[in-house]
Amino acid sequence: MSANLLLVVLFLPLAGFLAALFLPRTSPDASRRWALAVSLFTFVASLGLLVWFDRNAGGEQLSIDVPWIASPNIHFAISVNGVSLWLVLLSTLLSPICVLISWRSIRTRAKEFYAFLLLLEFGLIGVFLAQDLFLFYVFWEVSLVPMYFLIGIWGHDRRIYAAVKFFLYTMAGSVLMLAAIVYLYIRAHTFSYAAILDQLSSGVLRLGAEEQMLLFLGFFVAFAIKVPLFPLHTWLPDAHVEAPVAGSVMLASVMLKMGTYGILHFCLPLFPSAARRSAGWIAALAIIGIVYGALVAMVQPNMKKLVAYSSVSHLGFVVLGIFSFTQQGLDGAVYQMLNHGISTGALFVFVGLLYERRHSLEIADYGGVASAAPWLSTAFLVTTLASIGLPTLNNFVGEFLVLQGAAIAHFPWAVWASLGVILSACYMLWLYQRVFYGVAGEEVKSRLSDLRPREWAAVAPLLVMMLWMGVYSGSFLPPVSKVTAQVLAQADVNVPYRVAARPRAEVARAR
Amino acid sequence: MPVEVVMTGFMSGDLVRFLPEIVLTAMATLLMVLDPLLGKRRPSAFGHLSLAALVAGIAGAALADAHGGLAFGGMLRVDGFATFFRVLVMGVGILTVLPSYSFLKRQQAEAGEFHALLLFSIAGQCMMAAANDLIVIFIGLEISSIASYVLAGYLRDDHRSSEAALKYFLLGSFATAFFLYGVAVVYGCTGTINLTTVHALLASSGSTEGMLLGAAAALMFVGLGFKVSAAPFQMWAPDVYQGAPSPVSAFLSAGPKAAAFAVFLRIFMTAFAPLGRAWEPLMWLAALASMTIGNFAALRQTNLKRMLAYSSIAHAGYVLVALRARSQAGVAATMFYLAAYAFMNIGAFAVVSHISGRGEKRQSIDDLAGLGQTQPFTAAMLGVFLLSLIGVPPTAGFFGKFYIFKAALESHLVWLTVLGLLNSAVAAYYYLRLLVAMYFRDPADGAGPVEPLTPAFRVALLLPAVGTLALGLFPSWVLDFASKSAALLK
């Protein structure tokens, strides 16, 4: 029963997508209601996972493993662990929200829009659940297609450029990952992630240093493009700015997490020594991303672009936390993945709501919104404060843990990274000041109405989550810590080149 | 050193093993006779009859497979491998005939001739698939080629079509001559044209005539390389595919190509396997050159058929990667890929034939603009074919590429794999252009509406799309058979 629930959560959106194709084109409301029903039902089903998931036991749970293709041996193997559980819940929570916020903004070809949204949800959930490397790749690519269409059809002026750039970037990275997956299969004779890990830890499968590094890079580049890690981030601002609001939300909140999840779930345990050897330059890129993203965000005249660059900065924290190779760092990284999903998702929702009213993304077109729409302003303020890491709101916990982990690993990293925290306060508060304070212009006064009930329904859950995750991380972190502790342990076994990975001073001391 | 070929005499079993060719030839001849009788009154009857012949041919191939073995004194070898390719080329025939109903009607060119030529060509390809003798291969190649030269020029009032036919004929016969020259050299060196005997001689003697046989292999490589449009023998493909009627282009890109690859496998994996070290580098280069030239040239095309022609060159390159892997997995991957390619490419050409309209005037990418709104069904089908050509799971094209590059990695072809995969990322760009036009742009003003879909044409599009997805979701159906047949090829 409990494992079947996982199937329900995964396949409900797919079934919804297929059924949506047969809805009448002439009645967009039917598609909207259908998408809302399916995504809500999926969310409720995914809440059931919380009931069945044993928080005290670590490891993969609720596994399903059915042979799919006999030769080469590919299994339909899915399961959920303490990290993917939250990421799945994040996807299922945001999907109905995306339906709600698109209710009025998507008027043309609504049927296809909602169908693609459901297909996207299917792909994203699949990525987080897949335990067979091949299956993982399939879901990875499946999630790419609907996003491409969401950007390309319903996006803004430069949507075609952005959609194609998004597709090609991801494709270029993922073909290398495919090569690495196939190579791994040839060495291990299986695509099963668990089996490969077993072989690695028992020493049956030993990868040479160079081999491991190339495989690591094959995976890592694909993930780093998705994260996106500086300097592979250039597709992100384009995609975000051009995408429709729901596309931006799903992209920022969930899709980027595919990359960081992949690094955590695959790169570290599979290629521990290569990951440790690369930690230095990857952390450096992450820190450059944190500072660079924040600085560029500060000078953006366009709200969406500002939030997009802030994503580059925030995701830098996640990568830094992962490559600190400390318990705190990894916990913080995962927590930050969820936080970013909630708060940046909310920021995009608000930007979307503003755009729906004023039809502009330029900051200069706003000012004085607070007097015209007080509730909207308050909600935006809470999100802003969450985003800049105010204590008692969610991002504080994640950033604190990441910085702590980075400080343990290498103190200067923490110093540089904390620059990002300061800068985030600058650009976000400045944004808030310019948009919401000041004298309201004619346009703003006449057009900016306050939140409607449907919009409250979309926004309220996110605000609640910000507070909950900020005040009581105990609801979320324990299962995460179990997984990250395991990842750390796996990242320690079978490291034949551990000496090289250790700081030089430590090696000297050992002698 | 002459080798005795034991003549077993003419037996009824031989006829069963030759059943598909017999059925197709008989029907083709019948169609030519019926042409003046039925011609004006019931033109669609020709299509029905050729479909019936193709289905019967597939049944015949299955029957022949049940009585597998050598036929006509070792000239034919009916095994799983032959059956696979026979069914494949006849399946290609079915997929070609289905969209040709409305195409021929639109061009006002319905005649029995078209179908008769198609069946002759397929009969030749069936023979190539089952041939175990260089002369039989050559005869099959000629039957297939001559019929397809005529098919390329089928719309005789269209000067592009005539130009395509002439070009195809001149270059094609040149290539066939190369092949025949190679056959002659093989005969001169070994005294036999039977592939099994050639293999035995080469394996045992340690190639006493190494140089000459190497030259023979190279000559045959040129001939077959032309037929599969592998670089550097790809020059003809863009002009011919662009000029030929769309259903014929679809057929050329799948049928003769598959048969030529079957011959490639038979000759280079069995008879000339002992000379592997000599032809492997050639194959490596040809694979890389085909992929690169095909993909990069396709980037710049604006004509749909020309773009698909370059893409077809690139796809021949992928298949050559599998051939270069020179393993059982490589053979199976080749077979799977050709089946997958048949579905997706014929489907794509069928959509092109639909939108190009009367006289095939509309062939540019811009003519696809807004198809997602004006004809969502057609656009969705082309979308499936394009995603498969890009290699996005879960489609046949993805699994095809996956098997090919897996076989290549198993044979330690790391560089070829990486370059091939990067190539397929480049290829995504030009396929995406079509998706962009269909879905992201609005219908152009002034362009007349695309013709409404007939129910029959709906089926003609749906069938390859279902095939593309089915091979993507359940690749084992075909792959298991391909792997078993590949094991037989020794």
β-strand amount of chain B: under 5%
**Tally of separate domains of chain B:** 1
Computed CA radius of gyration of chain B, to the nearest angstrom: 21 Å
Class per helix and strand makeup of chain B: mainly alpha
Descriptive terms for the model:
heterodimer, A: mainly alpha, 2 strands, 3% strand, B: 490 residues, mainly alpha, two-stranded antiparallel sheet, disordered N terminus
Task: Describe the overall structure.
- The complex is a heterodimer of chains A (511) and B (490).
- With 511 residues, chain A is mostly helical.
- Chain A has one domain.
- Chain A has 22 helices and 2 strands.
- Chain A has helices spanning 2-20, 28-52, 84-101, 110-129, 133-154, 159-188, 193-202, 209-226, 235-242, 245-270, 272-298, 303-322, 327-358, 369-372, 374-387, 394-409, 411-436, 442-447, 453-471, 477-490, 498-501, 504-510, and strands at 61-69, 74-80.
- A two-stranded antiparallel ribbon of chain A has the order 1-2.
- In chain A, helix 13 (327-358) runs antiparallel to helix 19.
- The longest helix of chain A has 32 residues, at 327-358.
- Chain A is globular.
- The relative contact order of chain A is 0.10.
- Residues 1-8 of chain B have low confidence and may be disordered.
- In chain B, 77% of the residues lie in helices and 1% in strands.
- Chain B has a two-stranded antiparallel sheet.
- Chain B has helices spanning 12-17, 19-38, 44-66, 80-106, 112-130, 134-152, 159-190, 195-205, 210-227, 236-243, 246-271, 276-298, 304-325, 328-356, 371-374, 376-390, 396-410, 414-440, 455-473, 476-488; strands at residues 69-71, 76-78.
- Chain B has one domain (13-488).
- With 490 residues, chain B is an all-alpha fold.
- Chain B has 20 helices and 2 strands.
- Chain B is globular and about 70 Å long.
- The chains are: A mainly alpha (511), B mainly alpha (490).
- Chain A binds chain B through residues 25, 69-72, 109, 137-138, 141-142, 144-145, 148-149, 152-153, 159-160, 163-164, 167-168, 171-172, 175-176, 178-179, 182-183, 185-186, and chain B through 372-373, 376, 387, 390, 392-394, 398, 402, 405-406, 409-410, 414, 417-418, 421-422, 424-425, 428-429, 432, 435-436, 439-441, 474-476, 479-480, 483.
